[in-house]
Design a protein that fits this description.
Layout (H helix, E strand, L loop, with lengths): L2 H4 L3 H13 L3 H11 L2 H5 L6 H5 L14 E7 L5 H4 L4 H5 L7 H4 L23 E4 L4 E4 L12 E8 L5 H10 L9 H9 L9 E5 L25 E2 L18 H21 L3 H24 L6 H7 L9 H13 L4 E6 L8 H25 L6 E6 L3 E2 L16 E2 L3 E6 L7 E3 L1 E2 L6 E3 L2 E2 H11 L9 E3 L2 E3 L15
Parallel strand pairs: 1-7, 1-8, 4-12, 4-15, 5-6, 5-7
Antiparallel strand pairs: 2-3, 4-11, 8-11, 9-10, 13-14, 16-17
Helix pairs in contact: 11-12, 14-15
Length: 490
């Protein structure tokens, strides 16, 4: 780890902790002092010492933060921007005609459509209309999202180098197409630490019983960062976090005595041979014990009002649904979780797009909108950044043969759309344009690394200065790229 860059000295932190432990203060007293110290004292001043009080690597934010937390609504599979967010009436005029060579410009295609003899253009079968005072163009498939048009910034000029799902999802989540790098949530946990003592700083939820491309744990892993920064997956059902409950016949008091004895053994080993992994293990044991009481409370929505439940929609009481996960995301945000990652698979419409896209929007539209509305009415949207995005977009031409109203779209990394709200984002705005065919970016290109740099900036972090030394070089989320997208910021 680059100590000079981060200002964090693990050896000092370890000896301080052992010193307090040896004098009988115990972890309970340390946790109490952390709780009594408000998060704003560290977050609102650039000189605030985050490292001493929240396990952060940075000694303070690099500049004043606009957002305290992120809720990333990841739509896995590649939503069709042409049918949802990027209105292209010209495509309907040239529907069925061939994609001009002057538009394609010999650009790379996937193996699924690269051998096609023809590339018939397909206009969207869905109507678009302008919404709100801002006049944002949105598809009829997003009636609820249209209601927050004046809270959103729609970016229609995203692009990526990745053309297949595995590298694409890995890229937007970790900043690299290759497995092994820390995820964005892990970087934020490492840099800013935790704002709570009883829950993880990084929580992950995946919509239950959804098909689509596989989502593996490395997407929310810590890579070469300490393991305590990896995302903790919350699942539906009796045990939201695996292996958290006590084994049969073991009560909480017995579990606590076991953990205390194990902690003593770890400290004895630390005295003889310092090892950061032991420090991580001790912290994980302590957090797991606290989560035994905090997790059941946070997933219990019985105290939510009928108005709130109705706002999210009829699936809100189905554990593991996207709707239920959106409500849980708000509850986690209220309790100080720094990064909340939702995954909703199934946006991969290579065929049967009209019906498949309707189903996807039926499952996600109301809850996504409700989350923004709920945060806003609770006064949390100003310092909560909500991000809605997939790994890439879809082609303007049909994959395979165009058969009446039945068609599909292939992967398209050259341009796609996403939206953000809250947390320092300019509301009621749009950024970037594609050409009239929706195939190439015409104005204001936004790379995946630009998005990541902008998210870190809103949290008070200079993306070039949050680094970790590994195998002889300094790594960062944005690798050697990334520009802050200043026009979308307030």
């Amino acid at each position: 780890m680059n100590l000079k860059c981060t200002g964090f000295d693990p050896a000092w932190g370890m000896s301080r902790r052992r010193f307090l432990h040896g004098f009988g203060m115990g972890m309970g007293a340390i946790g109490l002092s952390d709780l009594l110290r408000s998060e704003t004292q560290a977050g609102e001043t650039q000189q605030g010492n985050l490292a001493n009080f929240s396990g952060a690597a940075l000694s303070g934010t690099h500049h004043a933060a606009k957002a305290k937390r992120v809720i990333f609504l990841f739509q896995s599979g590649g939503p069709s921007q042409i049918d949802l967010l990027d209105h292209k009436p010209h495509l309907n005029k040239v529907h069925g005609q061939q994609l001009p060579d002057s538009v394609r410009q010999g650009q790379r295609l996937t193996g699924m459509s690269g051998n096609q003899s023809s590339f018939p253009l397909v206009g969207s079968p869905f109507k678009f209309a302008q919404h709100g005072e801002s006049g944002q163009w949105l598809s009829e498939l997003l009636p609820h999202t249209s209601e927050i048009a004046d809270d959103m910034c729609i970016v229609n000029s995203m692009y990526t180098e990745a053309i297949n799902h595995g590298p694409g999802v890995t890229f937007i989540q970790t900043g690299s197409q290759f497995p092994g790098r820390p995820s964005m949530g892990a970087w934020l946990s490492y840099g800013l630490g935790t704002a709570n003592q009883n829950l993880p700083s990084f929580v992950v939820m995946v919509t239950r019983n959804k098909g689509g491309q596989p989502l593996v744990s490395r997407l929310w892993g810590s890579g070469f960062l300490p393991a305590k920064h990896q995302g903790v997956r919350f699942r539906s059902g009796k045990d939201p976090v695996l292996y958290l409950n006590n084994p049969q016949g073991i009560d909480s008091a017995s579990r606590k005595r076991m953990l205390d004895a194990l902690e003593e053994l770890h400290y004895l080993q630390l005295d003889q041979q310092p090892d950061p992994q032991l420090e991580t293990r001790i912290a994980q044991y302590e957090l797991a014990f606290k989560m035994q009481s905090s997790v059941p409370e946070v997933v219990d929505v019985a105290g939510e009002s009928k108005e709130t439940l109705d706002l999210y929609g009829p699936d809100v009481n189905k554990p593991g649904s996207y709707t239920a996960n959106c409500l849980l995301a708000r509850r986690l945000a209220e309790r100080g979780v720094r990064f909340i990652q939702l995954y909703h698979p199934g946006w991969d419409q290579h065929g049967g797009l009209p019906g498949g896209l309707r189903n996807q929007c039926r499952e996600t539209d109301q809850a996504s909108s409700a989350l923004v509305k709920d945060l806003k009415q609770r006064g949390m949207l100003d310092d909560t950044l909500v991000v809605w995005a997939g790994e890439f977009g879809r082609t303007n031409y049909c994959q395979g043969q165009l058969n009446g109203n039945q068609f599909g779209r292939d992967h398209h990394p050259r341009c796609y759309s996403m939206w953000m709200a809250g947390g320092g984002i300019k509301p009621g705005s749009s950024h970037g344009k594609t050409d009239e065919y929706g195939y190439n970016i015409a104005e204001n290109r936004v790379h995946v690394h630009d998005l990541q740099a902008t998210i870190l900036h809103l949290l008070g972090i200079d993306h070039e200065r949050l680094t970790y030394r590994h195998q002889g070089r300094r790594y960062r989320l944005t690798d050697v790229h990334g520009e802050i997208v200043k026009p979308i910021l307030v």
